[in-house]
């Protein structure tokens, strides 16, 4: 099971590597941030099983596979201090870029990632975001590739011990992101047909989207928080 | 659409509908009509699913869905049902905090009895 899981994540990684030039560990977790049509947290089963096996000593804050991926990333931090080619536009936190050959070790070489999540509203929709992952949103007009973006409508921020619930917005909280790509969704065929009236229309449609990668969540510290005593 | 495209869309259909163009054309047209209709239905179904899962999550804490949403609206928390259902599944502590906020904002649930867990009730003493 684990080997097939690794294979599936390798397949995901390789399919994205040609487009993005970003390291494979991002793509293990990237699949979770999805285009609007698919439920956000649709992880293929093998991936989740693989990562739950990696979790040995993590607390139950991020219990389920989707969140456990980011936790696995944090757990497997240790020795990765190599930074061969840091991207100039990349996140402030050091994110090394292993060669495409070292795929298996990539899963063990995650940098220290903060265990934090936020709920942000973009384009009229709400998304749960984690630093280091990407997601597809509605096309942001006027944003070019490699632009840094600050998202201000942050509705909830959660860390390991505290939750900051916005009413409706967490004041001064900001989610920093980088625009990666302005593309199009997969084509849907819009076929309209009325029976016995000789009416049929066949139209294809590709909705424009923007892929953004979340780099950090800041500015929530001074907000009244709900702290758990666990 | 020409025949090749229709037969490509007809993959997986039953019987002659995947092979013979006359039958495949009808079935493919019907399939495309269904997909048009169901793209709209999917939004309704997902919302219903989210509401069910939020209901289940809040009832574990002794609050039902209607009172929970009423409390959130009173507190001007604008999280939508999709995010609430995800939080209820994956972030139990944050969800607990939301339920407490709602309970304080709208005291309609003081007399609710928490459901007893089956594990607690033992048959063989």
Automatic annotation (TrEMBL), chain A:
Name of the protein in its database record: 50S ribosomal protein L21, chloroplastic
Region feature (Disordered): 77-109
Record-linked InterPro entries: bL21-like, bL21-like_sf, Ribosomal_bL21, Ribosomal_bL21_CS
Organism: Gossypium mustelinum (Cotton)
PROSITE patterns, per the entry: RIBOSOMAL_L21 (PS01169)
Gene Ontology molecular function terms on file: rRNA binding; structural constituent of ribosome
Any one Gene Ontology BP term: translation
Biased composition (Acidic residues): 77-98
Keyword field: Ribonucleoprotein, Ribosomal protein, RNA-binding, rRNA-binding
UniProt GO cellular component terms: cytoplasm; ribonucleoprotein complex; ribosome
Keyword NADP: no
PANTHER family to which the protein is assigned, alphabetical: 50S RIBOSOMAL PROTEIN L21, LARGE RIBOSOMAL SUBUNIT PROTEIN BL21C
Family: Belongs to the bacterial ribosomal protein bL21 family.
From TrEMBL, chain B:
Chief location: plastid
Keyword RNA-binding attached: yes
Entry's Gene Ontology cellular component terms: plastid; ribonucleoprotein complex; ribosome
Subcellular location: Plastid
One Pfam family this sequence matches: Ribosomal_L20
GO BP of this protein: translation
SUPFAM superfamilies for the chain: Ribosomal protein L20 (SSF74731)
Keyword Transferase attached: no
Cross-referenced InterPro entries: Ribosomal_bL20, Ribosomal_protein_bL20_C
GO molecular function: rRNA binding; structural constituent of ribosome
Keywords: Ribonucleoprotein, Ribosomal protein, RNA-binding, rRNA-binding
Family of the protein in this entry: Belongs to the bacterial ribosomal protein bL20 family.
Role description: Binds directly to 23S ribosomal RNA and is necessary for the in vitro assembly process of the 50S ribosomal subunit. It is not involved in the protein synthesizing functions of that subunit.
PANTHER family attached to this UniProt entry: 39S RIBOSOMAL PROTEIN L20
Protein name: 50S ribosomal protein L20
Gene: LOC107936759
């Amino acid at each position: 099971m684990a080997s097939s899981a690794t294979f599936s994540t390798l397949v995901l990684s390789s399919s994205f590597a040609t487009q993005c030039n970003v390291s494979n560990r991002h793509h293990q977790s990237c699949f979770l941030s999805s285009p609007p049509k698919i439920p956000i947290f649709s992880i293929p089963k093998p991936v989740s099983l693989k990562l739950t096996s990696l979790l040995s000593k993590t607390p139950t804050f991020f219990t389920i596979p989707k969140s456990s991926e980011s936790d696995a990333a944090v757990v497997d931090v240790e020795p990765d201090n190599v930074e061969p080619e840091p991207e100039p536009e990349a996140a402030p936190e050091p994110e090394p870029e292993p060669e495409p050959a070292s795929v298996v070790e990539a899963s063990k070489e995650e940098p220290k990632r903060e265990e934090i999540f936020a709920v942000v509203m973009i384009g009229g929709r709400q998304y749960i975001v984690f630093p280091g992952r990407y997601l597809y949103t509605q096309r942001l007009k006027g944003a070019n590739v490699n632009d840094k973006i600050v998202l201000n409508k942050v509705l909830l921020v959660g860390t390991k011990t505290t939750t900051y619930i916005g009413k409706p917005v967490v004041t001064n909280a900001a989610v920093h992101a980088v625009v990666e790509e302005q593309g199009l969704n997969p084509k849907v065929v819009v076929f309209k047909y009325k029976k016995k009236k000789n009416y049929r229309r066949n139209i294809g449609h590709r909705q424009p989207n923007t892929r953004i990668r979340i780099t950090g969540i800041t500015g929530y510290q001074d907000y009244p928080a709900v702290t758990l005593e666990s | 659409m020409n025949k090749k495209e229709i037969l490509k869309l007809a993959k997986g259909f039953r019987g002659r509908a995947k092979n013979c163009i006359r039958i495949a054309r009808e079935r493919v047209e019907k399939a495309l009509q269904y997909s048009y209709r169901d793209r709209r239905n999917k939004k309704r179904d997902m919302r219903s699913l989210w509401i069910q899962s939020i209901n289940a999550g809040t009832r574990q804490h002794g609050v039902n869905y209607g009172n929970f949403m009423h409390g959130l609206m009173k507190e001007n928390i604008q999280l939508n049902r999709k995010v609430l259902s995800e939080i209820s599944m994956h972030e139990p502590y944050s969800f607990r905090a939301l339920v407490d906020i709602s309970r304080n904002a709208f005291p309609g649930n003081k007399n609710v009895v928490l459901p007893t867990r089956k594990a607690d009730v033992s048959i063989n003493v």
